[in-house]
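Students often ask what a holo structure prediction actually looks like on paper. The answer is less mysterious than it sounds. You provide the chain, you provide the ligand, and the output is a string of discrete structure tokens encoding the 3D arrangement of the protein together with shikimate-3-phosphate.
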Amino acid sequence: MQTRCALVGMPGSGKSTVGRQLARRLGLPFIDLDQRLEQQLGTSIRNYFEQHGEQAFRDHESALLAALADEPGGMILSTGGGAVLRPENREALRRSFPHVMYLRASPEEIFRRIKHDRTRPLLQVADPLARLRELYRDRDPLYRETARYVIETGRPTVNTLVNMAMMQL
Ligand code: S3P
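The corresponding structure tokens follow.
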């Protein structure tokens, strides 16, 4: 059975960076759910949110995740931070990806990393740190429920994080 690994966690937790390098090291395809969605939608996620709202975005996200869950073969999948919100998505991830890893970072650490990033629609608010704390409080239990492993992303370099992920496979 080929390695199927999905990375979950908050926006800015390093899912895409770690996932891409992990895939390269393992010689597996890397799939970034957000990037695929942008290709499908023909616009940026931020634009799509603005025009159609969050629920329409979540419908597309769930449909693509279900399709990838049914796609056979090894892959490293980086999910969007909100992919775990719907129970059917958590179920699809657990069922189809034996290695679901939660890249955990504190809201304060995430804020430091992405405070200048204007591409994340959920953080375009007056107080993004308060928003991140709220999202973290709601989602940390969902990430933990979905993932088989928790990887603490606080201090280690990307390379160390990739090594940590490889050790769990
Ligand atoms: C979202 C996170 C984003 C993207 C969308 C919604 C969220 O992905 O899917 O903007 O709800 O946290 P990243 O986690 O890659 O930023």
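The domain at 4-167 is CATH 3.40.50.300 (Rossmann fold).
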